[in-house]
Amino acid sequence: MTLDPGQVFQNAIYIAGAHDWPLTPAEWEERARAALEPAAFDYVAGGAGSEATMRENLAAFERARLRPRMLAGTAERDLSVELLGLRSPVPFLLAPVGTLSIVHPDADLAVARAAAATGVPMVLSGAASTTIEDVAAEGPLRWFQLYWFNDREVTASVVARAEAAGYGAVVVTVDTIVLGWRDRDLRHGFLPFLAGHGLAHFFSDPVFRARLEAPPDEDPLGAAAQALAVFPNLALTWPDLAWLRGQTRLPILVKGVVRGDDARLALEHGAAGIVVSNHGGRQLDGSVAALDALVEVRAAVGPEATVLMDSGVRRGTDVLKALALGADAVLVGRPFVYGLAVGGQAGVEAVIRQIAAEVDLAFVLSGLRTVGDVDRSLVA
Amino acid sequence: MTLDPGQVFQNAIYIAGAHDWPLTPAEWEERARAALEPAAFDYVAGGAGSEATMRENLAAFERARLRPRMLAGTAERDLSVELLGLRSPVPFLLAPVGTLSIVHPDADLAVARAAAATGVPMVLSGAASTTIEDVAAEGPLRWFQLYWFNDREVTASVVARAEAAGYGAVVVTVDTIVLGWRDRDLRHGFLPFLAGHGLAHFFSDPVFRARLEAPPDEDPLGAAAQALAVFPNLALTWPDLAWLRGQTRLPILVKGVVRGDDARLALEHGAAGIVVSNHGGRQLDGSVAALDALVEVRAAVGPEATVLMDSGVRRGTDVLKALALGADAVLVGRPFVYGLAVGGQAGVEAVIRQIAAEVDLAFVLSGLRTVGDVDRSLVA
Amino acid sequence: MTLDPGQVFQNAIYIAGAHDWPLTPAEWEERARAALEPAAFDYVAGGAGSEATMRENLAAFERARLRPRMLAGTAERDLSVELLGLRSPVPFLLAPVGTLSIVHPDADLAVARAAAATGVPMVLSGAASTTIEDVAAEGPLRWFQLYWFNDREVTASVVARAEAAGYGAVVVTVDTIVLGWRDRDLRHGFLPFLAGHGLAHFFSDPVFRARLEAPPDEDPLGAAAQALAVFPNLALTWPDLAWLRGQTRLPILVKGVVRGDDARLALEHGAAGIVVSNHGGRQLDGSVAALDALVEVRAAVGPEATVLMDSGVRRGTDVLKALALGADAVLVGRPFVYGLAVGGQAGVEAVIRQIAAEVDLAFVLSGLRTVGDVDRSLVA
Amino acid sequence: MTLDPGQVFQNAIYIAGAHDWPLTPAEWEERARAALEPAAFDYVAGGAGSEATMRENLAAFERARLRPRMLAGTAERDLSVELLGLRSPVPFLLAPVGTLSIVHPDADLAVARAAAATGVPMVLSGAASTTIEDVAAEGPLRWFQLYWFNDREVTASVVARAEAAGYGAVVVTVDTIVLGWRDRDLRHGFLPFLAGHGLAHFFSDPVFRARLEAPPDEDPLGAAAQALAVFPNLALTWPDLAWLRGQTRLPILVKGVVRGDDARLALEHGAAGIVVSNHGGRQLDGSVAALDALVEVRAAVGPEATVLMDSGVRRGTDVLKALALGADAVLVGRPFVYGLAVGGQAGVEAVIRQIAAEVDLAFVLSGLRTVGDVDRSLVA
Fold it and tell me: Which residue, among C233, C234, C216, has the nearest Cα to C225 in the 3D structure?
């Protein structure tokens, strides 16, 4: 994965030119827009309400300014990270993104194969279009993202399947106990689940199927309605984490925290790590930028806790900024989904390689050899 | 009024999709623009001078960033507020807006019926197109907004009628002792009152009619001129509040305050509450944003005083931001007027339900069960 | 001059509607642009270099937010100011603007007549198109702005003429010892003086004429060249003010100061007052906004010194902001020049009356009866 | 070089009008865009990644506001600087810019001749299109910019040639140990070196030629590939400066530093001076603005160290701002390259004279006679 020292620029030209891929986040987005139905594109690209948080996520990265060191001897680099036993050759993972079958027929399988090909782990969405087990068959590098349903038996069944299939951690999303208010989807009247997308874990789950009057292939709309019925879980509280911990030996990361006090609560209730996130600006419009929240969360939990972040990462330099501001690693979301839309597995790989090359080059130009070299002074 | 927990998103789709209403503040405004004469639209949409304050009102809400709490157990919620004896199922009321007959023939009656249907109280404008008594006939949920004329007998008569008709409070507007300098209206040469709009309380008032040489239906222009003659009241001072208190047993809220010292003066002179407002940016161009003024006012009057605010509220998340920054409730103005323009009573209801659903969802996603749960830490 | 209390809005409609004048600063500017040759318009409208200071002058007013007081009893108002013996019914004067004959054939005479008609004094430019004596014949209300030439005898002659003609003060401009670098003029290759504009005081001056080989009507270009030759005066220092004081009994104001230390130097060397100004952004591109400089200058010279300001005043609320931030009065420049371009004397009057009405309304809506009521707390 | 006092404005008109040159940075850029192939223009005009740093470089100058002094007696001025024995009549030099043959066939020779004609020294690029010796033949005023290759013998040979040819200093660039990620170039698939541009020092170097299997005129692509192979030097560390110092008696300036600690390291390891720079925003996207870095660097190294800066200088007032914030002089890059594109040597001269005239005028209007008069208080 790691690029040859001294070959960074040529590699970049090769990556881009030889395959005619888009080159910038804006170009990937435009190509994805052209490749997708408007409703599908907007489901991916859009955010909650006025999309203020979505804009602010990007603006926070723009505001952060790097202070690179010169002549630090960066010929030999190791950009890898180890996160609760999971290794990645670069300090980013593929974020969990649901309903990928609206983007490409290969959906999560394409992502899993790109992950296996590059060594960059994926976090499988709890609302995936491919089953836990089918994704697991593509390789060992992955975590499982859990939506915590209001039906404990279904939830427990899904968690057990993930553990059995070899996933390395459960990333439980707490910012989506119900879906956000998303103007674009409301305008399209589009909810992917109603069209059968993103329900693979439900439809393959014996406990969930037992809830149905007819199997999904006979009554897909009824099955989707049942899935939507178990989805919202507004009653959840921090003490409920104890129950979840009782369902699995896997470490649990809590994803969707933007406050320092919440991060401490998560750790006090047994979480093994935090993913600072506002769900890419898709849940509460007006929420603080994830990068700003990261600073607060890291300050609250101290230097030892495992803290990842997502929401707004578009470029390799964004990855570096997040590391400098306290992240152990970041999750990349929309960029790889655009890659999937543009070119399936190959497109996902191209995006991964571009961002990896940018991260590597940012390390070289900032005087960094390892993730451990990154310190707070890297950002002004 | 309160939405079913877990049904928020579906409700929103229903609200929007089933009735083909606009979905965003911008869409409502565009649809209203299309429905109205340019001069009428601009009278509603415009502000004073360069409209700097109007822009700043919105910018202040944009600057405020939410810090939601996760896993706080929000399945059971009660968003209601009680304000000087008036209950609302949600922490907002319908702001007083004058001359609604330029927007829709049903004018204030449509609003009153939408208020009755949703349970969200209205504040009847002192420059309404429907009489105090006719609006009162639509239901019990309302306050009366008073323009304090330079003719004490007319003023007293109007106040007495409001009390007799069952209004629960007098909201006296102090920022409009004379109309602001509004570029758009000056450009159109449009003053609704000269065309007979917004004068229902005058024309139905026995004391006012006694001032006229001919009844309004015989000499409408002469009656309008007389109304404009009694309107400005530049001589008013805080001690004059004692006189107003002497005219009614109703509590009096002072609306249009943007300074902490003024808010204290209002309370010292007997006001029961404050409405922080810059009249939607329609009076003094360059005035501070109402949301910024709210912070100052709350700090000045302490936690116990009744403080509402308006000017800039467009979304459910704006309501939450205002609550976090010190408001007991907010008034929503232009949004419901656009609803009235687009669909009469049904349009007003749709706007109310949309904003209510957004508020409810914002509570769910921020970890709040009641208005009492909102604290200052909700805003960064 | 003072508007009838309670008639402000109607007056505004009358002012605008009855005469079909433009209403906003932007409209006046557009109408002036349409009325003038591009080079002439750009000479007036343009600034130095990238025009950063010109933009910043306006931005500083936009940033300043008003904190109006309510119910302060403003039925009786007196907006007049007295400045070193000169009275104005409103807290602004007409700024000195040179070469007005490129804008309108009546040039300074039209301005002088508008000043006489409204009672708002003008400051006659040292680069005027009309002689000191001809302007003086129009009325007593005026100051004289001096460009301090490198020829002491010509300078002294001009000052003596101003004193003899009854001007009340000399406003010596110190920020224009040579003309600024103005992109628009360079692009047009346009220097009004070379076309004979703005040289009336030179050509009517016996001392200057004695410098010429041929009178201006025989060799206008030669005379213009001689004027340009005596114009730059880079050698000037503060001690030179003593010489200027020796030439006249009139009080001397120093115009073009943007630093507190310079303002103190001016007073120490005998200036009777300061005009904080960056020459409307026409001299040093990148200079601080005049409104920001005003705050520094007032802090440096204390509350008693006479301090005026210009550069960026467009609206009545701008006047109020400048007063709150330390000005005893302001000078209005480009707005009246646009009025002159659009309608000659009547256009200048219309602009004066519009701004005066806006100032009056801003006083009413801010709870102010006199300029003395304005305090620092008016601006946030 | 120094303009006649009092003739500044006329000079500017002459410079612009008489030769029909563009007048503003934007016009020069547009004219250059029209004159060049898109790939060549973008190579010059573009920056790294999203070009955030490129924009921020300009924004930092825009944010800096000047506080000019009045009446300081500026008739006699001396704008010259002396930097490690090199004199310039103005406080700027011509920055090293590589591959100028993509811009104009005369490339570095045209620049050298313009430098000789105006007396403003150039810094010859290490990636020039003209040999060290050929440029040296044009005149004595120059420094040499070194790219420090991974081949010590080639590096030493180039340094020795520069010393032998009479260059006055070595400016070693440390921010380009490998090329940055430049979206525009990647999109064009354009790397000038592959087309043979910018390799004059390599191809004329006996040590380098000994590395080749065939001479460059027989196998240009092979020679270019070899040059690219020796270019990246990621292993460099500060202690390596000792080796470089051992290769030459010339003073060494370190170019590309943006941190105070790095600047101190450079001086501790024997550098004679610092050039604060982010390579015009072409290397690490997201890096701090060079002007902001200048403040930090000057604070770190104290008042005596030689500190220059580049990246973002477009106007004469930018030069003054940089001096006020700690620079002994600045380097001007893209502006002269646009001049070269538009008019060859004459175009470079025109740009130099325009900026020099602007600097001179900025000194006059700010009350400055010499560079030594500039102090920190000049910028707000």
Answer: C216
Residue A120, min C-alpha distance to chain B (Å):
29
DSSP-derived pairing of the beta strands B92-94 and B81-83: unpaired
**DSSP helix/strand/coil, C24:** coil
**Contact call for residues B329 and B320 (beta carbons, < 8 A):** no
D284 and D53 Cβ atoms separated by less than 8 Å: yes
Distance CA B1, CA B82 (A): 15
Are residues B53 and B286 in contact, defined by beta-carbon separation less than 8 angstroms? yes
Judge if ipTM > 0.90.
Answer: yes
In this structure, what are the phi and psi dihedrals at residue B197, rounded to the nearest 5 degrees? -85, 145
Out of B52, B234, B258, closest to residue C74 by CB = B234
A-chain CB neighbours of B357 within 8 Å are: 181
Distance from CA of B240 to the nearest CA of C (A): 9
- Write phi, then psi, for B23 (nearest 5 degrees): -115, -30
How far, in whole angstroms, is CA C372 from its chain's centroid? 22
Q: Can you give the C-alpha Rg of chain A in angstroms?
A: 20
Residues of chain C found within 8 Å of residue B237, distances taken between Cβ atoms: 71-73
Residue with tokens 């460099």: D236
Tens digit of each residue's pLDDT, chain B (380 residues): 443 433 444 455 445 555 689 989 999 999 999 999 999 999 999 999 999 999 999 999 999 999 999 999 999 999 999 999 999 999 999 999 999 999 999 999 999 999 999 999 999 999 999 999 999 999 888 999 999 999 999 999 999 999 999 999 999 999 999 999 898 998 888 889 988 999 999 999 999 999 999 999 999 999 999 999 999 999 999 999 999 999 999 999 999 999 999 999 999 999 999 999 999 999 999 999 999 999 999 999 999 999 999 999 999 999 999 999 999 999 999 999 999 999 999 999 999 999 999 999 999 999 999 999 999 999 99
Question: What whole-number distance in Å separates Cα of residue D354 and Cα of residue D359?
Answer: 9
> Which chain B residue has its CA at the smallest distance from A181's CA?
B9
Optimal mutation site among A178, A191, A226, A296, interface B, most CBs of chain B within 10 A: A178
Residues of B in Cβ contact (< 8 Å) with A234: 5-6, 73-75, 364
Following CA atoms A42, A48, A49, A53 in sequence, which dihedral angle do they give, to the nearest 10 degrees? -110
Residues in chain A whose Cβ is within 8 Å of chain D: 5-6, 8-10, 12-13, 16-17, 23-25, 62, 64-75, 315-317, 320-321, 357-358, 361-362, 364-366, 380
The catalytic site residues of A sit at 279
**Rounded to two decimals, what is the model's pTM?**
0.95
